[in-house]
Amino acid sequence: MRDVICPQGKCTLCMACVNSCPKNAIYLDYDKYGYEMICINPDLCVDCGICDQVCQRRQFLTRNVPRFNYAAQIQNNSDLRASASGGAFQSLAKIVLEQQGVCYGCAFDKEEDGFRARHIRIDRIDELYRILNTKYLPSMIGHSYQEAKADIKAGKLVLFSGTPCQIQGLRAYLNQDYENLITVDLICHGVSSSRYFKN
Asked: Do strands 102-111 and 114-122 pair parallel, antiparallel, or not at all (unpaired)?
C-alpha cells in the first residue's frame, strides 16, 4: 500500500485527496514541528490511485491571468466594519443566500484546547458573520468538497471561498466546471501551524 501521495514540501493541504478517498484512508496529522501533514492509513488503503489522480489534476489545472482588475468597497459602514477586505465577499454571499443558495467559508471557533479554523456550510444570512474576515490560519476543509458537490448536484447556487490552493483542490475534486458554482479565492502569503493557537 502507498504511504505518500506527494512529498510534504509540495503538499498544499488542499484536501482534495481526503475528500476523494473512497475508503476514508487519508487523514490529517502533524509533523514533528507541529505543521499539518497528510497521512495514509495502510490498513484502509486499497491502492486505487484516486488520490494520485486528483492530486495531479490539482497541479495541472488551467491558470488564468486576469485581463482586468477591479477594486471595490461595500458602501454600508456597518457591513464594512464586519469585513476585512472591503466587503466584496460579503456582498456576493448575500446575493447567493437571497437566492436560496449556500456558502462555504472559514469559521473561527473556540474549542477546549484553543481556536480552530475550519470550513463550514451556511444557508442563512444570519449565519454569514461566521465566515467573514480573514483568519490567518490553515482552515480545515474536512469533507466540505463532498458537501459542496452534493449541493451543486442538487441544483443549488454555491459560493465557495478559500485560499487559491483550496479552490484548486475543489476544482480538482469536482473535475469539471459547473454553472451554479462561484469560487472566491484570497490572496495568500502562506499560513502558520494551527497549533500556535492551541492552549
From this structure: antiparallel
